[in-house]
Amino acid sequence: MHRVAVIGGDGIGPEIIEAGTRVLDAAGERYGFDISWQRFDIGAERYLETGMLLTEDDLAELARYPAIYFGAIGDDRVKPGILEKGILLALRFAFDQYINLRPIRLLRGVQTPLAGKGPEDIDFLVVRENTEDFYVGIGSRLQGREAKELEVIRDLYSIRFDLDVESDADEIAYQIGVVSREGSERAIRYAFDLAMRRRKKVTSVDKANVLTDIYGLWRDVFGQVAAGYPDVESEFNFVDAVTMWFVKNPEWFDVVVTPNMFGDIITDLGAMIQGGLGLAPGGNINPGGTSMFEPIHGSAPKYRGLGVANPVATIWAGSMLLDHLGEHEAADAVLSAIEASIAQGVVTKDMGGSVGTMAVAEHIAATILTS
Ligand code: IPM
Ligand code: MN
């Protein structure tokens, strides 16, 4: 018996999560385990009614579970950033889910926009550091009258702006990224450990040629960790260049490790080369705590309630969740069943089909049960 917390969230979140739990229940039936799902009402609706985002009570309750199955958050009625920072990022940080693992893999039968590339070319893992960098939330927007602080910044860094501290018309904003030795080391080490079980290559993605302090530290740590894995090939790529290589030569990559924000950006690119956002899963992992599995796409409010959303990213995230719970055979079976139903053309509109969200899930569940 496994106990898993469920946060459907907003927009299409509840539908895709229902599809995902249906498939994981089938996997449990086939492989001899039960999952007890505990649903949490966290998201835009509750926020709009009560003002609550993520409460201390939520966190205390969620901490009792090894895993959270997460749909999506984001709602047109709420200013961008509130739910994202107040719920999703808050969960990642509160549970110290320092790994954001995002497989970029072209499943058999899926079209990639990359001409001449197939499943044997597109199969790598992005390890996105998930608790630091520009996501730490240190920053401010200041207007002229609050500008004592600004004058200090200006003088310290000889920034070329002429500030009128008597006028509110002048305004400045800044945001600071933080990378620590400990934070980068644990993510980089995780990437090397993964590579040991794969094709033994790790690529660091950074921008150490411009952001020389934070990514200079990242590079130093990468070099030191790499020295401990003599069997693993390692290399550096700058983030601008890697966007080019993902498109031109995806077959070069095995495990890619990168600070938080570049990881956010390059995994949307990765999602496209693996067939679209409807197919891209992610795991927010704390190897010793509460981890959280989710599709990397958002809540797509305009498709809410229509039953047309592609559940594959969420079901695949469910496969990662099963892996995390130690149900490796069932996890593999879920992924095989996804591939089988795609091969049979049981796909949603975004993939050129006309099958609904739940019908895709039922088909995948049936495939697992008869495998
Ligand atoms: C993601 C998302 C989030 C992120 C947002 C919604 C906070 O884009 O999971 O990739 O930036 O990490
Ligand atoms: Mn993103």
Task: Estimate nothing, just give the exact number of structural domains.
Answer: 3
CATH class of the largest domain: Alpha Beta
**What would you say the CATH architecture of the largest domain is?**
3-Layer(aba) Sandwich
CATH topology name of the largest domain:
Isopropylmalate Dehydrogenase
Topology, number of strands: 12
Number of helical regions: 12
The main β sheet shows up as: 10 strands, mixed
Q: Would you list the SSEs in sequence order as H and E?
A: EHEHHEHEEEHEHEHEHEHEEHHH
Ligands in the model, by name, code or SMILES, are: 3-isopropylmalic acid, manganese (II) ion
Residue stretches low in confidence (pLDDT < 50, at least 5 long) are none
SSE class: alpha/beta
Quick recap of the structure?
This protein is an alpha/beta fold. It has helices at 13-31, 44-50, 56-62, 82-94, 148-157, 181-196, 214-227, 239-248, 260-273, 312-324, 328-343, 357-369; strands at residues 2-9, 35-39, 67-72, 99-105, 123-129, 133-143, 171-178, 201-206, 233-238, 255-258, 281-285, 291-295. The two termini are 22 Å apart.
Describe the protein.
- The strands form 2 sheets. This protein has a 10-stranded mixed beta sheet, sandwiched between helices. It has a two-stranded antiparallel sheet with strand order 6-7.
- Helix content is 41%, strand content 21%.
- It is built from 12 helices and 12 strands.
- It has 3 domains: 191 residues, Isopropylmalate Dehydrogenase (3-Layer(aba) Sandwich); 117 residues, Rossmann fold, CATH 3.40.50; 40 residues, no CATH class.
- With 371 residues, it is α/β, with parallel strands linked by helices.
- α1 packs across α11 and α11 crosses α12.
- The protein is globular and about 70 Å long.
- The mean pLDDT is 95.
- The two termini are 22 Å apart.
- The protein binds 3-isopropylmalic acid and manganese (II) ion.
- The site of 3-isopropylmalic acid has 5 residues, from α4.
